[in-house]
Fold:
Amino acid sequence: MQPINLLFILFITGLLAACSSSDKSRYDIADDRAPTSAPDVSKVEDAHPKFEPYSRGGNRKNYTVLGKSYQVMDSGEGYQAKGIASWYGSKFHGHLTSNGETYDMYSMSAAHKSLPLPSYVKVTNLKNDKTVIVRVNDRGPFHEDRLIDLSYAAAHRLDMLKTGTANVSLEVIYIADPESIALAELKGTELHFIQVVASSNKSRLELLAKDLEQKYQVNSRLQQSNNLYRLQLGPIGQQQLATKLTEKLKLQGYPQSYLITE
Structure:
């Protein structure tokens, strides 16, 4: 039994040593650097903005790094800023981001201290006006004078690899939740009318109004201004339905139709 116990102890010891070695190698590059044999990233497309719910990971309201506390914004809508951009590469490539994803320095991604994750941001190099759209999925850079950390590919697009940093402007590209928009429209109290045509011939418009009411199953009204009458269809409670009907009218002989909201 003793030889078996000894082998077991040696096995466990070796396993723990391997785990310890693996933990140490997660960031085994002392200083960050560019890849030694990078693929051609000039053809890498911008990140494609779309609606994504903010993730549970990486969006704690408050967090602390290196003794300093940061607060994550509830929403990135309307966010604009100017500051210094840096970039990060091989040291973090293949490791998890704050969003729980895998950092790929060849993708158009970035790290920001307070934007909710994920967010889409247009970054402009103020020196050469080159731009890139990145998907923010990580936290950082944790330097007092840095605003955003860009991936290797994004830094290449902005022509800032050699300088390491660049003065940039940021603008969030905010995509609203389609379900929230639809619910807001359903709950909306605004009334929508479609201006179809205007004429001084009231009788002609009254006849046309009856035809349109029957054809599109919607009410109508005539709005008078001096000797001019405007034929409008409505009211329509949902903007989405009003917009669709407006487009239909334009295609079916009333190209001057437009939407009015009251």
Residues 1-30 have pLDDT under 50 and may be disordered.
